[in-house]
Amino acid sequence: MEGDSALSATQTPAPAPATCPTCHQGLRPEWYFCPNCGTNIHPAPLSTTLTTQLIIYAHSVILPMFLFFSISKWKGYTYFKSEDPVAKQIGTVAVVLFVLSTLVTFWLAYVWTQDAIQSSIDSINADMSI
């Protein structure tokens, strides 16, 4: 009995239904979509390749700088919500990089703004002393 419970804990999720719930077309277990109507039978697993990780991490770092251009393409949160532990770890690193990058971006914007203000004040004071 103990062997059965250990086996059930490591088994994969239930296979896809034998027929499509929308159009009742016959399905194979390895299909992610119904070939007849396109219904998503079960989501494809997230990629955890090194290339995918590097793209997600790079996107997490530059995201605050190009927020309006890239927010819809950022996959970090999708990975963070994943049930797969490897994908969740990738998502966690992506979220941490995003937060750190955002903080650095705001800090740099603050410092550069203060420097510009101080430079303008110094220029005004120099002009007034003439």
How would you sum up this structure, described in words?
By secondary structure, the chain is mainly α. It has two domains: 11-44, no CATH class; 45-130. 58% of the residues lie in helices and 0% in strands. It is built from five helices and no strands. The longest helix is centred in the last third of the chain and has 44 residues, at 85-128.
Count of alpha/pi helices: 5
What's the total count of β strands? 0
Query: How many independent structural domains?
Result: 2
Shape: elongated
Topology as a string of helices (H) and strands (E):
HHHHH
| Percent helix | 55-70%
Alpha-carbon Rg, integer: 26 Å
Strand content: under 5%
Largest sheet, strands/sense/barrel: none
Structural class: mainly alpha
First and last CA, distance? 94 Å
Features:
130 residues; mainly alpha; 5 helices; 58% helix; elongated
Question: How would you sum up this structure in a few lines?
Answer:
The chain folds into two domains: 11-44, no CATH class; 45-130. It contains five helices and no strands.
Topology:
Blueprint: H1 2-10, H2 50-62, H3 67-70, H4 76-80, H5 85-128
